[in-house]
Amino acid sequence: MSTRKKNILKVIILGDSGVGKTSLMHRYVNDKYSQQYKATIGADFLTKEVNIDSDKVATMQVWDTAGQERFQSLGVAFYRGADCCVLVYDVTNTKSFQSIKSWRDEFLVHANVSSPETFPFVLLGNKIDADDSKKVVSNKDAQDLAASLGNIPLFFTSAKTAINVDTAFQEIARSALQQNQNDADAFEDDFNDAINIQLDNDTNSCSC
Amino acid sequence: MNVKDQYLDTASTRSFRSGVRPSKSQSGFNIKTRGQPSLSINLDNTIVQTIIPPVNNTLNGDNEDNVSLNNFPRLRSMQSISSIVSRRPTRPNTVADQLSVNTSFDPLIEQSFSYSNNIEDPSTRQAQDTAFNEEARKDLIDRLAQSIYSYPASLTGNSYGFKPVVSNEIPDVFINDNQTSPDFKSHSKNFFILTSAGKPIFSMFGEDKQIVPYMGIINTVVSYFQINETTNIRTIKLNKTRQTFAFTNKAPIILMAYSRRGETTNELMTQLDLLYSYLISSINERQLKRLFHNRSNFDLRNYLEVTDFDNLRQICSLLSNKLYPDFGLNALQCFVMRKTERARIHDTIHNLLINESKDIPRGTLLYGLILSHKRKMFKLCAVIRPKGHSLHTIDLQLLFSLITHQFENRDGDQELWLPICFPKFNSNGFLYSYIKYLSRSHANNSSQMEDTVLVLISAQKDAFYKLKTFGDKLWNKLQHDKLDEYFVKDRFKFRISDIQAPLVHHFMYKIKKYVQYVMPEIEIHNDDATKLTQYECKLKKYYGHLYNSVVDDTGLPINKTILNYFHWEEEEEGEEGEEREEGEDAITETQRDFKREKINMMGLIWITPQFELYLICNNGVNNKEVVLRSAKRIIGWCKKYESRLFIQEGATF
C-alpha cells in the first residue's frame, strides 16, 4: 500500500449494433473470439492493465456499450468522464459507417468533456478479415472521415483473426492517458478554504 | 432510584421473537472434549445462569433445559448459594453489605474447584489423556472464579485489586459470516466508493482487477434511476439471500454498501455517510466540486493519499468488526473521573486561557480536547469549548480515526498540525488541529494501557506556534499540579459486576443532553485479540437487532418513549446427530454428560427523551420483571455517578 495507485482510464466503445464492439473488447482483454453473436444489454465492463510506451502502467476500464437504440437513454451515464472514445464501424456495412458521425456527436453532447476539439477519438473499421467482395466501405472513405473528424487515428481491425487489435488498443490507451493527464495538469490547487469564524455569533454552531 | 415508573405506562411495549435457526457453523456450541479448555466455555456460561433464581417461565423457556449441568450435585449447591445472593438487599450501600456479599461468594469459588475435580473423577478411569490436563484445569478454575458476580463497585474509589470478569460467553445466535476466502465476493460486507464516471476510488475488499467492472455496474444502476426516474436509488434487497445493497449518490461521488449480515438500509446509509464524511474531512466539498468541475474523468484516488486509504479501511473495519457505539449511538464515551478532579482540570484550563490571553488571543482556540486513547477507542477526559458551541460526534470520530492512524508506531513526542474539514460543522473549509500525545504507554503493551492526547483546534492556518505554546504550558501546569495523574491511568473503569444488576450481561447507557454514553469495560480472558473481536461482533449484532426493533423505516425511534424486550430463541431441534459426522470417536465421557445449552437470549431497549438504555441479559434469562428491575438499577447507578461518568459542562469560554 505504499505505491501510488494506477491511473484508471475509462474507454468507451460506440458503434452500431453488430459491428463487433464486444468481440473487439474480448479479443483485446481475453484474446478470445466467439463466432456466436449475442447482443450486449446495456453495457459490458472489462478491465485490463496496460503498459503504455513501455514505461507507464494504467488500468483500462473498457465500457462496451449496447449499440441498440433502446439503450441510448443510458448514454449519459456511460459517457460521463470517459478518457477516450472508440468509434467502431463494420467494413461490410455501409450504414454502420454512416452512423459514425452521429455517434461522435451523441457522445460529445452527453459526455460534457472539457474541450470537445481535442478530446481523443479512435476510429476502427472492423471485420477486415471478410472477403473483399463483401467489403463495401473503402479505405479511402474511412481515411477521409478520420481526417474530417480532426485527424483521428484510424485502424482496420479484425477481432476474429486478431488483426491490429493490440495496436489499436495501444493507441487508445496512449490517447486516454494523454487526455487524463492533460486534464489533471489543468487543475490548479487552492487550499485557501479556511473558515471564517466569529465566536460571538452562533451561526456556525452545530445542533448536537 | 429516580427512575419514574410512569415510563412503563406510556411505553409502547412490543415483543419480538426472532425465529433464529441455529446455523450449522455454530459448532462452538457442541461440546468438544479431548480435554480442550473450550469445555469451560459452557461451564462458565452455565454458572452465570445458575444465578438465576427459579422463575415462572413466561416466555416458554424451559429452565431445566438451560441448566444443562444439573445432574451434578455440586452444581446444585452452587445454585442454592446463587439464589441466596440474588435475594440479597437491592443495592448494598454500606461496606458491611458488600462484605457479606463477598463472603457469601467465597465458598462458591472453592466449590468450583471441587466441581472441576468432580469432572475428572469419572473420566480418569478410562480416558486419562482426554481429561483436562493441568493447564486446562487451571484455566477452567480461573475462569470459573472470574465468572461470578461479586466485589464492590470500583467507582467508590476503592483500591483497584482483583476484579472478577463477568462471563462473556453469551451464545452467538447469528450466522457466522467471517469468511476468509480470497474471493472478495465471499465477504459478507463490502463498501465501494467511486466517481460519477464509474472510476473506482476505494473498496473495502477486492483487487483492482476484480472491482473495476463492478464500479461500472454500480454507476450504471445509480444513473439509471437518476435518468429514468429522476430520483436516487436507495436500496436493493434480495430477501432470499439476505443481501442488501445501499446506495448514496453524492455527485461527483457515489457510494455503495453491500451486506449479507441482515443490516437495515438505514444502518448501511449512515455507515456510508461516515465514509463520505471522511472523504470530505480530507478534501472538503468545495474542493471536491472544483476537482470534478469540467473534468468528470478525474481520477480521485490518485489525489488522495495513502493515509486516506488506510483511514478508510480502518473506518470500514470499525463499522464491520468492532463494537463501535460512538457511531451507533452517535455519542462519545467519557473517561471516568471524580467530579472534583474533572472540575480542577477544567478550572486549570480555563484559568490558563484567561492568563495567556496575550499569547493566545480570543478566537484563536476554537475547541480543545484531552482524550484518553486505548485500543483505537477514545474517551473524553476534558473539553474546552466556547459557550453554546460543540462539535458533532461524527466530526470528532473522524478526528479520532486520524489520530489513531497518524500516531501509530510513532514516538510520543511527535506533534501534528493537521488541516481537517469537519463536514458536520462546515463542509466547505478546513480547520487546523494541533495534536500531541501527552503521555504514551510503552509500545509493547499499548493494548493494555491508556495514552493521553491533547487536541487544540483553530480556524487559523498560522496558529501552530500559539497553540503549541499554550499546549506546552497547559501540560506543564497539569503536571505541576499533579492533575495529569487523573487521566493517565483509568482508575475507575467498571465492569458489569460492579453494578448490582442481576442477569445483565452488558449494557450501554446514553444521556442525550451530553451526547455521551457509558458501558462496562469489555474484557476478555487473557486479552485474546481474536476472541475479543468475535465477542465484540456478537455484541454489535445483538445491539443492532435491539435497536432495529424500535425504529421505523427512516431509522428514527417509533416513539419518544419506548420500552421493548427483544427475545432471541432457538427453535426446537429435531435430530442432534447431523453435526456429529466427523467426530464420532470424539464423544468422550464428558460429552455424554453434557449437552449443548439452549439459546434463549433477552435484551431490553429503553428510550426516553432523556436517556437511552440498551441491555443484553445472560443466556436463559426470561423474567422480564427482574430484568426491568436490573435496568432501573443501572439507570439509578448511572444517575448516582453521573458527574463521574459524564462531562457535564467542560471548560467553556
UniProtKB/TrEMBL annotation, chain A:
A Pfam family it matches: Ras
Entry's Gene Ontology BP terms: regulation of vacuole fusion, non-autophagic
Organism encoding this protein: Maudiozyma barnettii
Gene3D superfamilies associated with the record: P-loop containing nucleotide triphosphate hydrolases (3.40.50.300)
Lineage of producing organism: Eukaryota, Fungi, Dikarya, Ascomycota, Saccharomycotina
Domain of life: Eukaryota
GO-annotated molecular function: GTP binding; GTPase activity
Keyword terms of this UniProt record: GTP-binding, Lipoprotein, Methylation, Nucleotide-binding, Prenylation
GO cellular component labels: fungal-type vacuole membrane; late endosome
UniProt cross-references to PROSITE patterns, sorted A to Z: RAB (PS51419), RAS (PS51421), RHO (PS51420)
NCBIfam families attached to this UniProt entry: small_GTP
Designated name of the protein: Similar to Saccharomyces cerevisiae YML001W YPT7 Rab family GTPase
Family designation: Belongs to the small GTPase superfamily. Rab family.
Coiled coil regions in record: none
UniProtKB/TrEMBL annotation, chain B:
Broad class of the protein's primary localization: membrane
Domain FUZ/MON1/HPS1 second Longin span(s) in chain numbering: 364-475
GO cellular component, as recorded: fungal-type vacuole membrane; Mon1-Ccz1 complex; multivesicular body membrane
Domain FUZ/MON1/HPS1 first Longin, residue spans: 189-309
Alphabetical UniProt keywords: Autophagy, Endosome, Membrane, Protein transport, Transport, Vacuole
Keyword Membrane recorded: yes
Disordered: region residues: 1-33
Residues in FUZ/MON1/HPS1 third Longin domain copies: 504-641
Membrane topology: Peripheral membrane protein
Bias type Polar residues, positions: 23-33
Compartments, as annotated in UniProt: Endosome, Multivesicular body membrane; Prevacuolar compartment membrane; Vacuole membrane
GO biological process, one term: protein targeting to vacuole
Keyword Protein transport belongs to the record: yes
General function of this protein: Required for multiple vacuole delivery pathways including the cytoplasm to vacuole transport (Cvt), autophagy, pexophagy and endocytosis.
Family statement: Belongs to the MON1/SAND family.
Protein's recorded name: Vacuolar fusion protein MON1
Natural source organism: Maudiozyma barnettii
